[in-house]
Amino acid sequence: MRKTIIAGNWKMNKTNADAVAMLTELKAAVAGVENVGIVIGAPFTALSDAVKAVAGSNIKIAAENMYPKASGAYTGEVSPEMLKAIGVEYVILGHSERREYFHETDAFINEKVKCALAYGLTPILCVGEKLEDREAGRTDFVNETQVKGGLAGLTKEEAVKVVIAYEPVWAIGTGKTATPEIAEETHKAIRKVLAEMFGAEAAEEITIQYGGSMKADNAKDLLAQADIDGGLVGGASLEAESFAKIVKAGM
């Protein structure tokens, strides 16, 4: 059975105090949830306090990015070694905003995925097409390219440790959401690519989240689809009440 994982991505939001207050509220709201993985991606400045705030709970903390070196002269970057040292367990890689604003390539993202795995972090690898790609019929091509690029050189044993997040870029922050049927079709196509790369058995083990404007009112229908195994949630993860509702929709 694939694990359902609901992850929040706060992006560039929340001070330390804001993070602790929200996580304290969230802990109480999801205390009884056992069959859904719960992850919060917090900004670097809040990570240490976030880890402490969720200690002993069913919530894990993710970094929103990392540099693929243990240490060195990389001013302004954060290493996997630093993340592990404070108790971070997940890391979001290849987010569309990293690809768009910071020009991250599939090859660089692949380097990050391999480095995260080497340090025992669980990568959440984001893939997804822009509106012009979907309108041009290039959805499957774009996702196949990003999946193959991001997971290049991994063994089957490594691949099953990666979480894939399908995020149609046209549905992020726009209020638009792929219908459950459209999302399922794309998730199924991504799983087919995974099967070609690592075999059908491994592909069936890999969690594929949906990451395009998942909210409390659409989460249940999306999560009911056979190949949608969770969500990577943006704006709706900033408030404990709305995020808890999405988590519970995955139960």
Write the layout of secondary structure elements.
Blueprint: E1 4-9, H1 16-29, E2 36-42, H2 47-53, E3 59-63, H3 80-85, E4 90-93, H4 96-101, H5 106-118, E5 122-127, H6 131-135, H7 139-150, H8 156-159, E6 163-166, H9 180-198, H10 200-205, E7 208-210, H11 219-223, E8 230-233, H12 240-249
Parallel strand pairs: 1-2, 1-8, 2-3, 3-4, 4-5, 5-6, 6-7
Could you please describe the fold and organization of this structure?
The protein is of the alpha/beta class and 251 residues long. Helix content is 43%, strand content 16%. The chain has twelve helices and eight strands. Strands 7-6-5-4-3-2-1-8 form an eight-stranded parallel sheet. Helix 1 (16-29) links the parallel strand 1 and strand 2.
**What's the SSE pattern?**
EHEHEHEHHEHHHEHHEHEH
Question: Which sequence of strands runs across the widest sheet?
Answer: 7-6-5-4-3-2-1-8
Rg for CA atoms:
17 Å
Q: Structural class, from secondary structure content?
A: alpha/beta
Look at the structure and give the mean pLDDT: 97
Query: Low-confidence segments, ≥5 residues, pLDDT <50?
Result: none
Sheet of most strands: 8 strands, parallel
Shape: globular
Total number of helical segments?
12
Could you tell me the strand content as a percent range?
A: 15-25%
Please give a handful of descriptors for the protein shown.
12 helices, alpha/beta, eight-stranded parallel sheet, 251 residues
Summarize, please.
With 251 residues, the chain is an alpha/beta fold. Helix content is 43%, strand content 16%.
